[in-house]
Amino acid sequence: MAMSFNLVMGLFLGIPVGGMIVFWFFFSQRYNKYIKEDSKVWECEFCLNVYTMNGNEDISKCPFCDNYNKTIVVNG
């Protein structure tokens, strides 16, 4: 059975793109449940680590490099 060029190219491009969309959707839903509404999102100015912490502090300590940072995004 001969397959047309359009069918081969459609499968060649469609399957990986479809897999990436499913992968993106699965992991975007998975990681959103870990951020609570009252938590703040921080980005370290030194090592660029992004982390969350609960509380009302305006300055926090990075868990990786111990640098002090100001909050960048407040959820809720």
Would you kindly provide a written description of the structure presented here, covering whatever features stand out?
By secondary structure, the chain is α+β, with helices and mostly antiparallel strands. The chain folds into two domains: 1-34; 36-76, no CATH class. The chain has one helix at residues 5-32; strands at residues 39-43, 50-54, 59-61, 68-74. A hairpin with a 6-residue loop joins strand 3 and strand 4. The protein is elongated, with a radius of gyration of 21 Å. The termini are far apart. The mean pLDDT is 79.
Primary descriptors:
alpha+beta, 37% helix, 76 residues, 4 strands, 2 domains
Number of helices: 1
Molecular shape: elongated
Looking across the biggest beta sheet, what order are the strands in? 2-1-4-3
Q: What class do helices, strands and sheet pairing give?
A: alpha+beta
Q: Helix share of residues? A: 25-40%
User: Strand fraction band?
Assistant: 25-35%
Outline the low-pLDDT stretches. none
For the biggest sheet, the summary is: 4 strands, antiparallel
Number of domains: 2
